[in-house]
Amino acid sequence: MHELSIATAIVELAEEELELRGGIAIEAVHLRMGALCGVVKDALLSCYGLACAGTPLEGSHLTIEEVPAIVYCPACAARARLEAVQAFRCPGCGAPTNEVVQGRELEVVAMEILQCA
Question: How far is residue 32's CA from residue 42's CA, in Å, rounded to a whole number?
Fold first, then answer.
């Protein structure tokens, strides 16, 4: 399960931020996750708790914003949301397309921090 290695990398990234800032605690990590990134949301959420155990992030939570898959259709000259990630066809005209505009993201976009006394 590669979700555990991804969760571990997220925790390591947050720990680096803790070291840089000092005197803070991280309450939540916010992640943008595209439909085509190949990560299972529920598995990642479960693994995040495991990855946080015994670290300064223990007790924090992971918030995931799901990003839909958007492709560019050359036949329509427009962007369209894929109806299914297995079928790379324009939902409007049915033309095949392989130009992904959005949906591959897997990025930490924010951290909620608390100042420690």
Answer: 14
Please provide the average confidence, as pLDDT, over all residues in the chain: 92
pLDDT per position as a tens digit, 11-28? 999 999 888 888 788 999
- Tell me if 89 is assigned to some domain: no
Domain span at 23: 2-67+103-115
Residue 29 covered by a domain: yes
The number of folded domains in the chain is 1
Print pLDDT tens along the chain (117 aa).
589 999 999 999 999 988 888 878 899 999 999 999 999 999 999 999 999 999 999 999 999 999 999 999 999 999 999 988 888 888 889 899 989 999 999 999 999 988 775
Side-chain half-sphere exposure of 20, counting CA atoms within 13 A: 8
Residue 82 placed within a domain? no
109 contact partners, CB below 8 Å, separation of at least 6: 30, 31, 32, 65
CB 67, CB 34: distance < 8 Å: yes
DSSP bridge partners of 99: 72
